[in-house]
Design goal:
The protein is mainly beta and 250 residues long. It is built from one helix and eleven strands; from the N terminus they run H-E-E-E-E-E-E-E-E-E-E-E. It has an eight-stranded antiparallel beta barrel.
């Protein structure tokens, strides 16, 4: 199943789960229950900074924030007036924007890469309510990466070229031992805050930090900057992000 078919299957599953939540919802939206959540994320990855790859001499490498979306369902269980447990299932777009300048054969070039990771995230959060509507929360998230690719723009000697890489998790990137350049699983933590009205509408924001190295140190391939990745430099590659979102609780 390719990355686009996988996304369609996940979206269909999330939609179905949302419809189920409507059928079992209870009155009293400030008492927890099922909900829908969607928003915008700003993410980056801590790729290494290569100095030389093949005949390219890289300099001024810079990783910046990339904008992506997130959408899914949530279920909150209240325990008294001040505590709650919240479980989410989200489809998210993460990744990184990377800009590099380089020289080759005495000429200068500039690469701009937008790397996309398509993930299924399962955050589990403990919430502390200050009154009926405002809460602070923290907890772990578990993430499975469906696929990833990069959109690359190269300007060299005044000429512009653009291309899109293949799926980083596809057969094209497997090495002789069948290893892929990046791992599929991520584990990290969220910390955030929310405001939810008695009618069930709410807004929230959170910081997200991955704890695992996404790079596969067993990978023996030869990816370069033009593939949208720099691997094999033994750098610890982790996810960092911010998310702002709206929610509706049934």
């Amino acid at each position: 199943m390719n990355i686009f078919k996988s996304r369609k299957v996940v979206l269909a599953g999330l939609f179905s789960l949302g419809m189920i939540s409507i059928s079992v919802a209870k009155d009293g939206n400030n008492e927890g229950g099922f909900g829908l959540k969607g928003g915008v994320g700003f993410s980056t990855l801590s790729f290494g900074e290569p100095k030389e790859v093949e005949s390219f001499n890289f300099k001024n490498n810079k990783n910046t924030w990339k904008v992506g979306g997130m959408l899914g369902v949530t279920y909150e269980k209240r325990f008294g007036d001040h505590f709650a447990l919240d479980i989410e299932a989200l489809l998210a777009n993460k990744g990184v924007k990377r800009q590099s300048t380089y020289s080759i054969l005495g000429k200068e070039g500039k690469l701009t890469m937008k790397g996309n990771l398509f993930t299924i995230d399962l955050p589990v959060s403990a919430k502390f309510y200050l009154g009926d509507n405002f809460n602070l929360y923290a907890g772990p998230y578990f993430s499975y990466i469906l696929g990833g690719a990069a959109k690359i723009e190269n300007v060299f000697d005044g000429k512009k070229q653009s291309k899109e890489s293949n799926n980083w998790y596809g057969d094209d990137y497997k090495d002789v031992n069948g290893e892929l350049p990046m791992n599929r699983f991520d584990l990290g933590a969220n910390i955030g805050l929310e405001f939810v009205t008695n009618g069930g509408f709410g807004v929230g924001a959170r910081f997200q930090k991955g704890f695992l190295d996404l790079s596969n140190n067993d990978y023996k391939g030869t990816l370069t900057e033009s593939d949208g990745l720099i691997m094999g430099d033994k750098k610890f590659v982790s996810n960092t992000g911010f998310q702002v979102y709206a929610l509706f609780r049934f």
